[in-house]
Amino acid sequence: MGTLFCTQFTQQQPSNHPSMQIDFPRKRLQLGETLYYKLLENILLDERKKKPKDFDFSNLLEQDIFHQTLFACCLEIVIYSYNSQRKFPWILEALNLEPYYFYKVIEIIVRVEDQLSRDMVKHLNLV
Length: 127
What we know:
This protein is mainly alpha-helical. The chain contains 7 helices and no strands. Helix 4 (64-81) crosses helix 6.
């Protein structure tokens, strides 16, 4: 997904635009990956609080669509935070994801991440 993101991010830009350089989308990708792991950990900790200690997380962790949409939402947060010209639903089109699954993960993220700015929560609610 990272390679696809970088490829799509650099397409359709003038050759003198800074995002044509591959380092630009890679930096955004790295921020998105960091946020992905932070949110994944928060989600698992939140589920642990709700469920008994012997709850098996493998069912959740084996769902590719969950990881893809969580990662896409993290990238959307990064893109929006840096005032990119890429506006939603660009990330869905770039990564070929269905809006329904993306919508489902937004509520989870807003619930488990208390460090999101008010502006970011508004953006995700608008999405």
